[in-house]
């Protein structure tokens, strides 16, 4: 019984010691044009920004993706794997809430 308690405590400590922030976040969206029509099988550019709290000036991460929507207008990306000068691993998730902002350019530019 004593060994079981010792092993349980050791296992609990080992599991909590390996807690990590995510390396990437899966993201999906349905993309529509300004008239509300689905953008099917269309190459688009996406800019993803993480903003800390409700303050628009506190952007902590930004990245760009170039991808193609499917036949239903669905796009799937992994946040943290796009083109960026930031390091996704340096985000301090313990500082509170973060907002996710996505900007889409259907003309595959930087507009």
Overview of the structural elements:
With 111 residues, this protein is α+β, with helices and mostly antiparallel strands. It has one domain (23-105): Immunoglobulin-like, CATH 2.60.40. It has one helix and five strands; from the N terminus they run αβββββ. A three-stranded antiparallel beta sheet has the order 3-2-5, with no helix packed on it. A two-stranded antiparallel ribbon has the order 1-4. A hairpin with a 6-residue loop joins strand 2 and strand 3 (59-68). The longest helix is centred in the first third of the chain and has 16 residues, at 2-17. The radius of gyration is 20 Å and the shape is globular. The N and C termini lie far apart (66 Å). The model has no long low-confidence stretch (mean pLDDT 83).
Largest sheet: 3 strands, antiparallel
Strand order of the largest sheet: 3-2-5
Unreliable segments of 5+ consecutive residues: none
Radius of gyration: 20 Å
- Average pLDDT confidence is 83
What letter string, H or E per element, gives the SSE order?
HEEEEE
Terminal residue distance: 66 Å
Shape: globular
The CATH first-level class comes to Mainly Beta
Query: How many independent structural domains?
Result: 1
Oligomeric status of the shown chains?
single chain
Total DSSP E strands: 5
């Amino acid at each position: 019984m004593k060994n079981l308690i010792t092993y349980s405590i050791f296992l609990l400590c080992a599991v909590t010691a390996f807690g990590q922030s995510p390396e990437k976040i899966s993201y999906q969206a349905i993309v529509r044009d300004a008239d509300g029509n689905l953008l099917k099988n269309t190459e688009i550019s996406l800019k993803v920004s993480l903003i800390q709290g409700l303050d628009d000036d506190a952007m902590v991460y930004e990245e760009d993706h170039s991808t193609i929507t499917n036949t239903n207008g669905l796009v799937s990306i992994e946040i943290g794997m796009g083109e960026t000068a930031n390091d996704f691993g340096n985000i301090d998730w313990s500082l509170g809430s973060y907002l996710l902002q996505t900007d889409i350019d259907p003309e595959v530019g930087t507009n």
